[in-house]
Amino acid sequence: MIMAAELLLNYSKWSSTDREIFFKWVRNVYLKSCTEIRTRKNNWADWGRFGSVLCAHLLDNKSEMEENVEKSRPLCYSSHHFAWSFPTLMPAKLSFK
What averages of pLDDT result for each successive group of 10 residues across the chain (97 residues)? Predict the structure, then answer.
């Protein structure tokens, strides 16, 4: 639903009232659920981070996006991750300014 909302942002028949109701649901329900699971030690964490990134992008929330990037950084240097072989793929610090 979050990706579909991104596609519909400029759709003229999606009223600003309905859009704000949806954004409120994203902030108060979906993002909260994603945040609660993104630190687990299983694949739920991956889905939680993915959902959090989608929410951050949709809601234009830079601090949420930066937090998710920082939480994902250790995964990129794990011996079980492809990017570990190519450390230049993951810069030391990303900036979203």
Answer: 94 96 97 92 89 94 90 65 49 54
Q: Are 37 and 69 in contact (CB under 8 A)?
A: no
pTM, to two decimals: 0.71
Q: What is the dihedral of CA 40, 45, 51, 54, to 10 degrees?
A: 120
Please give the Cα distance from 17 to 73 (Å, whole number): 37
Closest to 55 in 3D by CA, of 2, 5, 17, 8: 2
Structure tokens at 34: 């994603």
The C-alpha angle 14, 16, 20, rounded to 5 degrees, equals: 105
